[in-house]
Write a structure and sequence with these properties.
mainly beta, Methylamine Dehydrogenase, Chain H, 3 helices, 29 strands, 7% helix
Length: 409
């Protein structure tokens, strides 16, 4: 319910009573206590958790990371997240501190009624976004910071000192076209937040049109961003005032208004020698070579559908990338740059696979599936060696990202 609807709901009893005895009506406004005011005494014992953002239900799904192999693996709890319990705010992506003390959730603040999806039409929200700092012991927000509208990806630097937020601002592109503005008017910004001084104004770096996916180099020097304009951008984190590097990911790129690849997500191996670009439009995986500072034309891999957020094994030899329309998970040999196997998923188990992560032992691949944006999404547990789906766990509406929140030592 938006503010206008809430105001109308609150005024309606007063309007109806005006023709009665002229007295003041009784105003009753309540929310379910167990949904919005949680009793943390009922929380399960501390442990390593999987936390997943559910966009359309403004909730977080919390699961036990140590119980993935258990037959009864499922949600431990589902907790609300947001700044206003009577509005849909679209929690979008998250990142967790290595210490396990806090994690961070992006709030997209989409405009209700502007279209389908958690951001209205994804990327077309008109209100500024926020990032919430959430305490892992009770999943309560302890601080927040305002960022630009339409926050997209959110990632921490390896040392945990910087929190990075991209802004998938498609509306900025549309406004530039409508108002006949120069191409640079389409460029959105990367927010760099000092986690030690969370409430300080973020450093904002103008990068490219509708940047979304973020990958950080293992040494923390660079942040790479996928740009809808068929480009890859690189920001120097130690010198954010320096002009970002921008380069096309294709020999013949399309414009921001009609991209050929439409870069959406990035995946970087542990060695940091490359950055893999997921093309949502063309279904390609494209490799940027860090040493040469150029795209590697010999490492193009075509997937059956639009590519999203992948993950590498710790040795960097294998890459797993979910794709949509058709839905599946690509098993890729990153050394030989080839598709080894494509695991097709049944709709009953997973619709619209979006994000992935490997368990600590590398035996299981966890895949967040958006669902049909009407009913619940799901979390797939995939056996890596057997290349099979072991189980599908129901989640909230439109889940889109996961993070491992470690038990504090």
């Amino acid at each position: 319910m938006n503010r206008g609807s809430l105001l109308f709901a609150l005024l309606l009893p007063w309007v109806a009573s005006c023709d009665d005895d002229g007295g003041e009506p009784e105003l009753v406004f309540s929310l379910p206590d167990d949904e919005y005011w949680r009793d943390t005494r009922t929380f399960p014992p501390a442990g390593d958790r999987i936390v997943i953002t559910n966009n359309l239900s403004d909730e977080l799904s919390v699961l036990d990371l140590d119980a993935v192999d258990s037959p009864d693996f499922g949600e431990l709890m589902r907790v609300p997240v947001g700044r206003n319990p009577v509005e849909r705010e679209g929690p979008h992506h998250l990142a967790a501190e290595a210490s396990g003390e806090f994690y961070y959730v992006g709030i997209s603040n989409y405009v209700p009624g502007s279209g389908s999806g958690p951001h209205g039409v994804h990327g077309a929200g008109t209100a500024d976004g926020h990032v919430l700092k959430i305490r892992s012991t009770d999943h309560l927000a302890v601080d927040e910071i305002r960022v630009d509208r339409n926050p997209g990806d959110i990632r921490l630097s390896p040392d945990g000192r910087r929190l990075l937020v991209s802004h998938f601002d498609l509306l900025k592109i549309a406004e530039a076209v409508t108002n006949h503005l120069p191409p640079e008017a389409m460029d959105a910004r990367l927010g760099i937040i000092d986690t030690a001084n969370f409430t300080a104004t973020p450093t904002m770096v103008t990068v490219c049109p509708a940047p979304h996916g973020i990958a950080v180099s293992p040494d923390g020097r660079y942040a790479y961003l996928s740009c809808i304009s068929d480009e890859l951008a690189r920001v120097t984190l130690d010198d954010p005032a320096a002009a970002p590097l921008r380069l096309p990911v294709l020999a013949n790129p399309g414009p921001a208004t009609a991209p050929v690849c439409s870069p959406y997500a990035l995946t970087i191996p542990p060695a940091g020698d490359s950055v893999w670009v997921s093309c949502l439009e063309s279904g390609e995986l494209l490799r940027y070579d860090v040493a040469s500072g150029a795209m590697d034309p010999g490492s193009r891999i075509l997937l059956p559908g639009g590519a999203l957020f992948g993950t590498f094994t710790t040795d960097g030899a294998n890459l797993f990338v979910p794709h949509q329309a058709p839905d599946g998970i690509a098993f890729i040999d990153a050394n030989e740059r080839r598709l080894l196997f494509d695991l097709q998923v049944e709709r009953a188990a997973c619709i619209n696979p979006h994000a992935t992560s490997l368990t600590d032992d590398q035996r299981k691949l966890l895949v967040v599936c958006e669902g049909d944006h009407s009913g619940p999404g799901s979390l797939l547990v995939v056996d890596v060696a057997g290349r099979t789906v072991e189980k599908s766990v129901p989640l909230g509406r439109f889940p889109d990202d996961l993070a491992f929140v470690r038990a504090a030592p």
